[in-house]
From TrEMBL:
Residues 299-331 form the DUF6576 domain. InterPro entries: DUF6576 (IPR046483), Peptidase_S54_rhomboid_dom (IPR022764), Rhomboid-like_sf (IPR035952). Residues 243-309 are annotated as: Disordered. One of its GO terms (biological process) is proteolysis. Residues 72-216 form the Peptidase S54 rhomboid domain. This is Membrane associated rhomboid family serine protease. It comes from the Bacteria.
């Protein structure tokens, strides 16, 4: 069962939308930190372990400038860190509700840059207000996705105010009312000092969400620099893990039979399941019209490339059972 769950999670992380990937990362980090906290407390005689605070300070931000200078990565990692169950539950539910709407309407590639940009702005906003004052005297660490989630919620609410979603016990509610209630709750929370850092952080996310939405209507994506930075990191990582041409092994030699090479006899056209509707080739009638795997004459890599192309065009759900099984076997190799 655990292997099946792991395969489902890995498949969703590889081929799911960006909101699902962000949720998987957040939940995974929460599980690891929660288990680490349990182990440290047991070792410490079932008492709060000071060593775990050191672990948290490695990932969370503080309002100490020296800590930010020596731990610059925490500006990003803190928005993926949670400890309390209900803390991560509500953040991920709100992200699931409103993040999917934003991704569906404005592009999945904009989700992660907005999530990170909103979280960064929210913390900087709170730092500018809290650091010069005495509000941060009782705040040791700051973490959580609340600022980023508040940014995404506000962004989609400003861009699509008349869009309705169905909420439990409330029925269909327009996004503009959800944003108004969210802003009202945060403003009223300023009347108490309970989680004052979190409240100001949420307000920072709301402010950036409003600014981002207004600029996006004008065709300006304020999170685009973050998107380019993410692409640079991905490309750099690919160059590191991809072997150079000098280290690539030469492929097998071409064999001949009956006067023609295997390469020449392999089908040159795309498999039928890769053709769009109205294509010239007949579709297989197997499994209600879904095409099966490519012909056996194709190499393993060619079959894999064809299936990945199909996922790119129609998504993972466009694959039939044989193609999904083939993809799963290939990922386990």
């Amino acid at each position: 069962m655990l292997q099946s769950i792991w395969d489902d999670v890995r498949r969703e992380f590889n081929f799911g939308n960006m909101i699902n990937k962000i949720i998987i990362v957040n939940v995974g980090i929460w599980i690891v930190l929660a288990l680490t906290n349990v182990i440290f407390n047991i070792v410490n005689g079932f008492a709060t372990s000071p060593a775990f605070d050191g672990v948290m300070r490695f990932f969370a931000v503080t309002y100490d400038p020296w800590h930010l200078i020596t731990h610059p990565w925490t500006l990003v990692t803190h928005m993926f860190v949670h400890l309390g169950f209900f803390h991560i539950l509500w953040n991920m539910l709100f992200l699931l509700y409103f993040g999917r709407i934003f991704g569906d309407l404005y592009g999945d590639k904009r989700v992660l840059p907005l999530y990170i940009a909103g979280g960064l702005f929210a913390f900087v906003f709170s730092f500018v207000i809290i650091y010069p004052s005495s509000l941060g005297d009782n705040i040791s660490l700051a973490y959580g996705a609340s600022g980023a989630v508040a940014c995404i919620l506000t962004t989609i609410g400003v861009l699509q105010p008349e869009h309705s979603i169905r909420l439990m016990f409330l029925g269909n509610v327009r996004l503009k009312y959800i944003v108004m209630v969210t802003i009202l709750i945060q403003v009223l929370s300023l009347g108490t000092l309970d989680n004052i850092g979190g409240t100001i952080d949420h307000i920072g996310g709301i402010v950036f969400g409003i600014i981002y939405a207004i600029q996006l209507r004008k065709g300006i994506d304020l999170a685009a620099p973050v998107g380019r930075a993410i692409s640079w990191v991905e490309n750099t990582w690919d160059r590191i893990i991809t072997p150079s041409k000098d280290h690539k092994q030469s492929g097998p030699r071409t064999t001949y039979r009956r006067g023609s090479s295997v390469k020449e006899t392999a089908p040159k056209s795309r498999p039928s399941f890769m053709r769009k509707a109205g294509g010239s080739e007949k579709k297989s009638t197997r499994q209600g019209g879904d095409a099966g795997l490519p012909d056996n004459g194709m190499s393993h890599q060619e079959q894999l490339d064809s299936i990945l192309d199909k996922i790119k065009e129609g998504g993972y759900n466009s694959l039939n059972k044989e193609e999904k099984d083939f993809l799963l076997r290939a990922s386990n190799q």
